[in-house]
Every structure is written in C-alpha cells, then in structure tokens.
User: Fold this.
Amino acid sequence: MALSIPSRPAMRYLQILYFFTSDDITTTIIPITLFAVVAGPLCNLRRCSHIVFWIWLHLLHFNVANQIIDPQEDGKNKSSRPIPAGLISLEDAVVLRWALIPICLALSAYYSSQVFGLSFVLTLFIIFYNELKAHEHWISKNFITAVGYACFEIGSTLIAGKDMSRLEPNAILAIILSLAVFASTLHAQDFKDVEGDRLIGRRTLPIAFPNLARMSMMVALPLWSICLSRVWGVDALCTFAFTAYGVMVGLKFMTCKTSQAARKSCKLYSLWFSVAHLLPAYWRYVHEARTHPF
Assistant:
C-alpha cells in the first residue's frame, strides 16, 4: 500500500513518526488509555492528552527499535512501514531509535520518579527484546512483551491518578489481572504474521505449536470473560454478552486459518481486550453505585 506524505517538512516528519506506530493504535494505545482512565481513575480531563502522548512516545521508542533490527522482516510482513517504504533511511531510523531514550526518560521524570523508573525499565526491556534478540523465541518474546505491557499500564495509570507516585488498590488488582490476561492471550497478535515470521526463522507460539495456540484462544477468552466479570461485579446479562463474544472470537481463531482471516480475528480480539480493560469502570461506577446508593 502506498503511503501519502505531505510536502511540508514538519508535517512529513510527524507523519513518518505516526506510521511507525499506526498499526498499534487499536492493539496498544486505545486499550491502555482506556485502562488508565478507569483504573487511575482519571483525575481530570487534561490528563488524557498526557496519557496518550506518554504511551505513544514509548510505543514509538519500542517500534523504531524493533523495526531497525530486521528491515527484511518488514519487507515481507509489513512493507508499508516507514523503512521498507523508503520514507526514512535505516541510518536515520537508528539515530532516532537512540535519541528517543533520553526523550522518554526526560518526559517521564516530569511526572514522578516512579514513572521515570518504569520508563527506565522499559528501555532495558526494549534493548533485551531487540538488540539481544529475545524476540526470536516465543517464550522470551511473550515474557518480555507481557512485562513491557504491564509497564505501559502502570505508567499511564500513575499519570491518570491524583497522586502520580502511587496506585490505588483497585488499580493494582486491575493491573495484575490485565497482565495475566495479556500473558495468556498475547500470541493472538502473532497469527497474522506467521508467513513472514516463518521465512525469517522466528519461532512464535502459532508456529511452534499451532494447534495448541489456537486451542488456547478458544479456552482462554471465554474463561477470562467469566473470571473478569465475576471479579468486577458485572451483571448476568453483560457477563453473558461478554462471554459469548469471547467464544465467538475463540472460534474464529480455531476455524479461520488464512492470513486475511487471522488479521480479522486479531481485530476482534483487540475489541475484546479493550472491553476487558473497561470492566474496572463497571465496578467503580455501576456495581458500587448499586451496592452503596447513598
């Protein structure tokens, strides 16, 4: 797919940065933003822009670091990304990759030492994932991705709350549950990249154990739907609807095995994951109101 780039330099550079992260808006930026808003909870509307920018900047850091490691993979899997599309040279992307480290750390230090610490941990894990090649095997890949995702959630939730140095008890519970859900289902995003990953020798779970990977989605999504609904006090009708949707998505992964079907299944999973991130809001604004009406 050809990418349209504005002629003005400033807009051109901004759009190139956007293209580095555009594939992850529905899988990362939206779910984590929703999670931070409801788990924080959000202390005022002005913080929304801070949350989104902090998430996006650290996602940009990860994606640039990832996309300079093996441009050959992107040429096969995602040729519209900035480097294979010729929008930015590999040399310039490398400079951007290392320049983003102090930028991310400086922004995080503005909020609190805790947010700075999370940004520093993310930096280490990004190096481990990319330069130290943890992404090449599904065990290390899934572990690093899950821990990194938790850092995103903790950092954004701290920024959302009144006190950016500590989390509320419900926020801690929500983060623990989110980490467990993500760690057990994150390979959903690997199905759509199976062909390209196989060509470069990467062993993701859908490649190493395809039947197990598909079956795990069929089992995990309904079970997590029921578990999360119980934890957050969701009523019977909403629990049924959420669980039924989880069953439908799980069946998609089991029965639809083409690359195009895998991309659609991933989008359906992203919606399920976003709804799961909103359930703490149900507890805070619906369940608690029913339990303590006055």
